[in-house]
Write a structure and sequence with these properties.
Number of strands: 2
Distance between the termini: 15 Å
Number of helices: 7
CATH topology: di-copper center containing domain from catechol oxidase
Strand content: under 5%
Order of helices and strands: EHHHHHHHE
Structural class: mainly alpha
Helix content: 25-40%
Largest sheet: 2 strands, parallel
CATH architecture: Orthogonal Bundle
Number of domains: 1
Oligomer: single chain
Shape: globular
CATH class: Mainly Alpha
CATH superfamily: Di-copper center containing domain from catechol oxidase
Amino acid sequence: MAYTRKNVSRLTRAERQRFVGALLEVKRRGEYDEFVRMHLAYYHPDGESGLRAAHMAPSFLPWHRKFLLELERALRRVDDSVTVPYWDWTRDRGTTSPPWTDDLLGGNGRRSDRQVMTGPFAYRAGRWPITEGVTDGKYLTRDLGRARAPITLPTGGDLEWALSDPVYDTAPWDSTVTRGFRNKLEGWGPGRGNVSWRNHNRVHRWVGGVMLGGAAVNDPVFWLHHAFVDLQWTRWQQRHPDHRYLPDRPPGAHDAQHGRIVARHEKLPPWDVTPDEVDDLSGIYLYE
């Protein structure tokens, strides 16, 4: 029987406690940092050689769908009542609204060094040291809304712009494409500054701190954000049932993207599954 992923703003007090408790236990066991290392290992931009699986590629959505499911399985090994909630950043847009409460993820970082001082993931609480992908400090940092260079969260209209595109992705299958649902949702845009960050990417920028870059998994909000992104893929699939993941076949030997992206029936590293096989996981989980 499929379980349900809920909107974080609708979790009961007990559900909040169980979710936080499971995250802290996965961290204590050393499993959580494995997820940070995995994301770092597969965070390859356009300019690097080799396969791109997690970002700037068609597999952005199926890769993170599988990644999210693996974290959820780790949490459920601790407490099988727990699922990953999603943060609807088109509605909960304040710096003190869910999930930024003391009984969930804690609040913004302090002005001096952006260190998060409240909630169960604050460094001073002693249960969330950051050891992977950082060059200074061992504490969680945030800069919600970017005080020095303000940025706003995406709106429902921004999401609709992505959802209304019936084509999943287009050549050259990277961060430069201007058509296709995948990059409109992932959010690599032309130009510089705030206007170049859209949807998924813009949220990472809005949160700031450790959510910037490949080690973003160090902030637990990463999972709530990506659960909402995954929900958008589900909604896109429901709206466009005749359209599916692209490319269907790998680029040819003379294509610049040959060996650099994952086609529908190719394996998603580091797992033994294809994008086609994670196209529909409604037998495992559903969204509220």
